[in-house]
Amino acid sequence: MKTRPAIFAISAALTALWSAGGLAAEEFTKGPGALQVFDLEGLAATPLWIKLWLAVLVSTFLVGLFVFAWRRPIARGAAGGFLVSLATGHLVFGALDLPMLGGAIGLWHVVCWTPALVLLLWKRPFFDPAEGRWFRIWSGVMTAVIVISFVFDIRDAAIYIGHFSRQGA
Questions:
Q1: Domain segments of the chain: what residues?
Q2: Residues 82, 87, 93, 95: is their CA dihedral positive or negative?
Q3: At residue 119, does pLDDT exceed 50?
Q4: How far apart are CA 112 and CA 109, in angstroms?
Q5: How far apart are CA 52 and CA 43, in angstroms?
């Protein structure tokens, strides 16, 4: 059966994700900032508006995964980018011996979600009357969610890169 290796890989990646949470992050405070550890304690220290935004973001990606990904390549791309960002961020930054802080999360979002954003902006399914109404709505919301996230993610990624590039110099 072809799905077993995929399920094993996803399970292994998620296990590594949660077990690698403390890599090189001891000197950083907990919270949602670019140079803060954003784990469960960091989430608890996060303002309500960010928690609500995260709920909208995750819900939008999950709708794409569970409702549209089976029939729509663009939804598969968005869901794939979301799952890859969740499953591999800690592994990649750990392998680079860099702490997984808010800025690293932002950087990894930009890396993993850009292909889906490019497809959404290029194909523009939210304007295509041949697409179903619910898919058009979802694709418009998904595009907005990624663009709004990138406003914060790009800023946080720049702060993170700036901080660690100065440290190595």
A1: 37-168
A2: negative
A3: yes
A4: 5
A5: 11
Q: How far apart are CA 46 and CA 63, in angstroms?
A: 24
Q: How far is CA 91 from CA 41, 46, 113, in A?
A: 20, 24, 17
152-156 long-range CB contacts below 8 Å, 24 or more apart? 152/106, 153/105, 153/106, 153/107, 153/109, 153/110, 154/106, 154/110, 155/34, 155/106, 156/33, 156/34, 156/102, 156/103, 156/105, 156/106, 156/107
Q: Answer whether 103's CB lies under 8 Å from 157's CB.
A: yes
Task: Indicate the helix (H) or strand (E) that contains 72.
Answer: none
Write the CB contacts of 1 (distance below 8 Å, at least 6 apart in sequence): none
How far is residue 13's CA from residue 11's CA, in Å, rounded to a whole number?
Answer: 5
Per-residue confidence at 27, pLDDT binned at 50, 70, 90?
confident
